[in-house]
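Collaboration report, partner site 2.

Our partner group contributed sequences for two proteins of shared interest, and the home lab folded both. The records are reproduced in the order in which they were received, starting with the first partner submission.
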Amino acid sequence: MKLYLVRHTKLDCPAGVCYGQSDIGVNISFEVEKNMIAGKLQNIEFDKIYSSPLKRCAILAESFTNSPEKVIYDERLMELNFGKWEGRTWNEIERSEEAKFWFNDYLNTQCPGGESYKDLLRRVQDFLNDLKKKDSGNNVLIICHSGTIRAFYTIINKVNPLKAFGLKLDYGQVVEMELKN
């Protein structure tokens, strides 16, 4: 099964803000970005479309079908939950004592009131296990987030999670991966 993972488009949010699972809308550049993504995917027929339920993904996912009800929303595709840090600036977060622990071991350490990266990996692994059980077809479109795409990369390619953080993932980027049974 071929997975086409698409990172959402730019957000209506100031730079430097931690937004994780905050439900932020799309930027005014959405139509231009959406058309660029559609151009990259124009000759592919998708058997299923999955999306994070957050607005920035849902709006994009629904733009790829004439029947928005065909989009399957799955909370396991959401970005890392940054808990109490959501909506705060990274500069402010980095000065906290809690952040020092998290940055030293974000794989195992949960954000205050949120998740660790291993929590995100577990969610994505659970999603992939379900996807393998279902008849999802040959081509599956998944609209999600950079953290989620890195989790897919880690699991599917069986690499150290630290390697996945070397991936440059721009807004609207399409990443293809092969999911084998």
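Second partner submission, folded after the first:
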Amino acid sequence: MNIMNNRKLAQEKLESIKKGFSAYEESPEIADLIKREIGILQLDVYEDATEFGFWFIPNREK
């Protein structure tokens, strides 16, 4: 079994978001890391928190 570091998982999802793709995360701990980085980088991202997890959807420029 391959166990990945939470920070590494958050960074991989953040890279996806930066490229304009949505990211989904079930873990609240990892979602918090992603939210923190989104705030630091001032990315324009819509966050949808559901009972099952968190969606991070980059807002497209018009």
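Feedback sent to the partner group on the second submission included the following. The longest strand covers residues 45-49. The chain has one domain: 6-58.
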